Amino acid sequence: MREEYYDTMMSGKIPKGLPGGFFVYEAGGDENIVFAEPNVVRLFGCDSFDDFMELVGGNFKGMVHPDDLYKIENQIEAQTIYAEKRHDFVRYRIITKQGDLRYIEDFGHLLHCGDGKSYYSVFIVDVDQNEYLNTTSNSYAEAEVLASNRETDELTGLLNMAYFYNKVQLLLSAPESRRQLASFVHFDIPNFKLYNERHGFKMGDELLCDFGRTISEVFYGGTVARFSDDHFVVYCTAPKEEVIECVEEVYRKMLLTDDVNKKVKIKAGIYFMEDRRAEVGLACDHARLACNSIKSRHDINYCVYDDIIRDGLRRQQFVVDHIDEAIAKDYIKVFYQPIIRVSTGKICGYEALVRWVDPENGMLPPGYFIETLEHFHLIHLVDEFVVKKVCQDYRKLADEGESLVPISVNISRLDFEICNVYKLLSDFCEIYEVPRNMIDVEITESAFTDNTGLIKEEAGRIREAGYEIWIDDFGSGYSSLTTLADYQFDVLKLDMVFLRSADKNPKTKTLMSYIIKTANQLGASPLCEGVETKEHYDFLKEVGCERAQGFYFGKPMPLNELLDKMYEKGMQWEE
């Protein structure tokens, strides 16, 4: 058979029909193609160079299958610009003029001309599908090239964390970037592990690829990386308003996708860098912390890192670093608030409430440290201290001949997981000779949603031992009347939100009447918090609420101050 050649009219001939060929395109900018030899033209099903240029739009981007473009452009950039080597090896698909799909291996080299321009000199080869999908090296040369391909994430083709740091640090250091804005966005998919459990890892991988592609398309021109799992990070220089718009666009695209199994809500944290000398890693951490701060929020999908979050993190660090010292040096205090029998107006109990009085920062409100201690699973340290202090104070009252009423202590849901609550109560009651019926245990209603059965079992054990069990904060969040039927308890404590709402909405009083009546019928004593006016007190009398608590009777205060205040007001105690 006679071989046929393309005559280059310059330096020899090129055999016709080779399943591959050589082309050159500009590096950066529009990536315009400046040369393509005839075998490349024929590979795309075209008859001439002009025909080929029209098909691909005259640039390299137009040669690549749209679904592969964002992936291989990251790989090429990582291998040639942000690595020691200047060559790349990538695989992608092309679509011919006739609509056929072909599989391509691409061997490129980044070349720099004396005039300052740079070009990619590329040789592409048409391979069959099996070879295309084979990720193992089949030659020494390919193994060398593939070994250098550690700059990108294997699944999505996006930059990995290390090369993202390297690239962005170089971009920030460039003279032309000094006047540009710098923004970092951290994305993730809440409960992604649960998604994998429901839909399988294959579908999970597809979702991650779609997520990465969506971010890349919306933040076109930005630098996008997959750090790990479902965590993606973007660096861009767009105006702040545009960055927020892009974040919202990613949210919409992921939520409104046509595939119902891939409709997910995403969260994002945004950090606008002010100091260009700051480390990239720190900027990414700020964006991540902003994202983490809203993971439990269902009303917002992004958060901007600002002074509020920064102060919140400092507060968290202070609490974690100083809680042991605060307990050891008695900076943690127990305040008491009276509980009133509605029918008689007499004091029938106290609630023990924790406060932190720091010698330098003064009084720290509970919201300042309780949430942090729960988040870091340290709340049991404070709860143990409170139980001990309450028992000590009870013994002091008894020894001084003061009137004695039960004292309620708050026990966190986490206490049941970390320590033996039953033993904790029993030990201190035994040491300080406190009758068990004088200690009431308040457990917030949300804790009873525990599906392990641990809290239900332990609460039952504590109640059988002679302590009363109270359901605290009923109505503060998602409340269910089934809780009242499923658990054995002695007091139902209505959250203060009820009375606050009742001042504005008459329907709330009807609802409260119903809940109080139900509690009474179930044999549980209804107690209402937040009593601040005589009108509140009179209403509770009217609807049959048994106990009441609030500023109308007395604010939380140290025990000695509380006793003085109650004597001053002429209050009486139940026998």
UniProtKB/TrEMBL annotation:
InterPro entries, sorted: Cyclic-di-GMP_PDE-like, EAL_dom, EAL_sf, GGDEF_dom, Nucleotide_cyclase, PAS, PAS-like_dom_sf, PAS_fold_3
Domain GGDEF: 180-307
CDD domains from the UniProt entry: EAL, GGDEF, PAS
Signal peptide, first to last residue: none
Gene Ontology MF, one: cyclic-guanylate-specific phosphodiesterase activity
Domain of life from the UniProt record: Bacteria
Domain (EAL): residue spans on this chain: 316-570
Record-linked PROSITE patterns: EAL (PS50883), GGDEF (PS50887)
Pfam families assigned: EAL (PF00563), GGDEF (PF00990), PAS_3 (PF08447)
Protein name (Swiss-Prot/TrEMBL): Diguanylate cyclase (GGDEF) domain-containing protein
